[in-house]
Amino acid sequence: MLKKNLHLWFPAYIRKTLKWNPRIKKPLHIVFTIVDHFEPYWGKVSHDTALKRVKTWVDRLPEIAGRHVDSRGTSPKYTFFYPEEEYKYEYLDMLEGLCRRGYGDVEIHLHHDNDTPEGLREKLVNFKTVLYERHGLLRRDKKTGKIMYGFIHGNWALDNSRRDGRWCGVNNELIILKETGCYADFTLPSAPSDTQTSKINSIYYAKDDPEKPKSHNTGIDVTSGKKPGEDLMIIQGPLAVNWNRRKYGIFPRIETGEISYSNPPTLERVDLWVKQHIHVRGKPEWIFIKIHTHGTQEKNSEMLLNGGLERIYKYLEEGYNDGKNYILHYVSAFEMYNIIKAAEAGKTDSPSVYKNYII
After folding, report:
1. Tens of pLDDT along 277-330?
2. What ranges do the domains of the chain cover?
3. Is residue 291 a contact partner of residue 237, using CB atoms and an 8 Å limit?
4. What are residue 30's DSSP bridge partners?
5. How confident is the model at residue 22 (pLDDT cuts 50, 70, 90)?
6. Could you tell me how far CA 254 lies from the centroid of its own chain?
7. Contact 28, 277 (CB under 8 A)
8. CB atoms inside a 10 Å sphere around CB 165
9. Which spans in 66-222 are helix H?
10. Distance, CA of 149 to CA of 44 (rounded, Å)
C-alpha cells in the first residue's frame, strides 16, 4: 500500500501523470534490462550456502534465457551487481563463465557504513581492478582507456541519502563514483525509503554538492541533441501507483519495478513499467525499462527461476514486439547506458546497433 515518505516523490508522480504527452511516432522501441542486487552471503549464511546460491543461477539462467529472443534474435542478458564486500574468486569465476556465454554481465554493488571519501575510493578502485584484471569483467572506455563500471548502492543510501546518515557517510560520493570510472548509477527507485528522490521516472545527470547529502535528488535530464553532461548519470527504474494490486482490496500499492517472492511479476505490472515512459528527452520513441531484484534470496530465486522470468520475457515478446507498434531489445546495464548515450547524440538507427557505442 502507499506508505511513509510519500511526500518525497508523489507530487512529481502526479505532475508526470497529468502532463500532456504529444502523439509519439511508432514503432516504440522497448529497451529492457533486469539488474540484480546479487548478494550470495545475504542473511550471513555459510560459504556452502552462498556457493549454492551462485551455482543455482549459473546452472539455471542459460536454460531460461535461451528460450527467449528479442527483435534481433538476442537472448535476455541479466546483470549481476556483485557486492565488493562479498568478493570470492570462485563465485566471480563462475559468473564470468556465464557472461562469456552471453547470458549475463557483472557490475559493482557496495554496502558500506560510516565510510570516508578515501575509504570509498580505495574500495571502488581495487574492486574494479580485480574484476577487470583477474576475471576479464567490466570494460575500458574507448577514448580514455579507463576501466568503467555501473553501480548500485547497498541499502539505497546513495550519496549519504538516509536521514540518519547510516549505510554510507560520504557526501561527495557522486564525485568519487564519476572519478573512479562509474558510467551510471542504477540504484533508484528506492521508495518507500527516505532515500527516494523527488525526481522520478527519469534519466538524468546529478551534480554533486560535496558538502551535502542526496545531491541526486534533482538533476538535468539527458536530452537528445544536447551536449553530454559532465556529472554522474542516474538511470532510474519505474515508480508508480499500482491500482491493480491493493491492500484489503482498497489501498493501492507502490510499483517500484522490484520483482520478488512477495511481489511477483504480472502482466499488469509489465504494462505499468512501459506506461511510465522513461526516455531520453527529445527521443520519446525509445523507452528504457530497468527492473530489479535480489536474486540470491531463496524465495526470490525460486520464483524467478521457476516461472517468474519466463512470464516477463514471454509477455514482452508477445505484447511488445510486433514490429509495427513495438520493437523489443534485450540489453545488459552497460548496453542500456550505451544506447542512452546514442539517443543523447541524436542517433536514429535501431537502438540495438548502439549496444557498444561508448564503452
Report:
1. 999 999 999 999 999 999 999 999 999 999 999 999 999 999 999 999 999 999
2. 6-354
3. yes
4. 287, 328
5. low
6. 18
7. no
8. 14
9. 89-100, 117-135, 173-179
10. 26
